[in-house]
Design goal:
- By secondary structure, this protein is α+β, with helices and mostly antiparallel strands.
- The chain has helices spanning about 1-15, 150-155; strands at about 75-80, 90-95, 100-105, 115, 130, 140, 160.
- Bound molecules: heme C (2 copies).
- One heme C (HEC) binds near residues 49, 50, 59 and 60.
- This is Cytochrome c domain-containing protein.
């Protein structure tokens, strides 16, 4: 069983090099994105139109992807237990631990996801993420800055972006 799966996975990249290969895969520079998808989308408390909790949103919500809105920052906030945490807040700042200038504040939706298409200085400049619980009583911050707003690329599995215990 495992061996068959492995062979399929190994064969996959070869299949893409086939001259007869039809459409470019999403994420590829040749992927043609429908301009009608370039809408502004920003998450808000109580919203429930997002999906794919925990996944890398920018796999699809990007310049060469098929999803509405080119996200500049997006991901999923979790509670200390590891479950998605609704209606919190994500800030991107010029310094760690909620200090420095506020560059963006993105409300977490009711599924625990946050996303924005607003222009950000990433990746040219790096920003410090700080996350807050809905009442602001709990927070957690990244001690060093990130030049990528695709939070779930690094924060995957048990390393999801999390709030500390109450
Ligand atoms: C595998 C590709 C893919 C991934 C990964 C993905 N999305 Fe999407 N998303 C789509 C597509 C395609 C649509 C439009 C069709 C639909 O609504 O299902 C969409 C729709 C949405 C919408 C609704 C937009 C609207 O105007 O109604 C939101 C919000 C959204 N995604 C947020 C996210 C967030 C946040 C993440 C990551 C946690 C994410 N998506 C991950 C492909 C993806
Ligand atoms: C390039 C990888 C990477 C990206 C992208 C990234 N982070 Fe992090 N983040 C880390 C690492 C590594 C740590 C652990 C730092 C430590 O504990 O010393 C961390 C720690 C954190 C922490 C504190 C620990 C925790 O999980 O609560 C928060 C909060 C956080 N990141 C939020 C975010 C947010 C929000 C984004 C997206 C805007 C983001 N990060 C993007 C790598 C990344």
């Amino acid at each position: 069983m495992h061996r068959a799966l492995l062979i399929l996975l190994l064969a996959a990249p070869l299949a893409c090099d086939d001259p007869g290969d039809p459409a470019p895969f999403m994420g590829d520079d040749d992927f043609v994105r429908d301009p009608a998808l370039d809408v502004e989308l920003v998450s808000a408390h109580g919203d429930a139109i997002s999906h794919a909790t925990g996944d890398n949103c920018m796999r699809c919500h990007q310049e060469n992807g098929p999803a509405p809105g080119k996200f500049t920052a997006a991901g999923t906030l979790h509670d200390a237990s590891g479950a998605p945490y609704a209606d919190g807040l994500v800030e991107l700042r010029s310094a760690p631990d909620g200090l420095g200038d506020l560059v963006a504040a993105v409300e977490v939706d009711s599924l625990g996801n946050f996303y924005t298409t607003e222009p950000l200085p990433l990746p040219a400049s790096s920003l410090f993420p700080t996350v807050y619980s809905g009442d602001g009583a709990r927070k957690s911050f990244m001690p060093f800055p990130t030049s990528s707003g695709a939070c779930n690329v690094c924060h995957a599995g048990s390393f999801g972006v999390r709030l500390p215990e109450a």
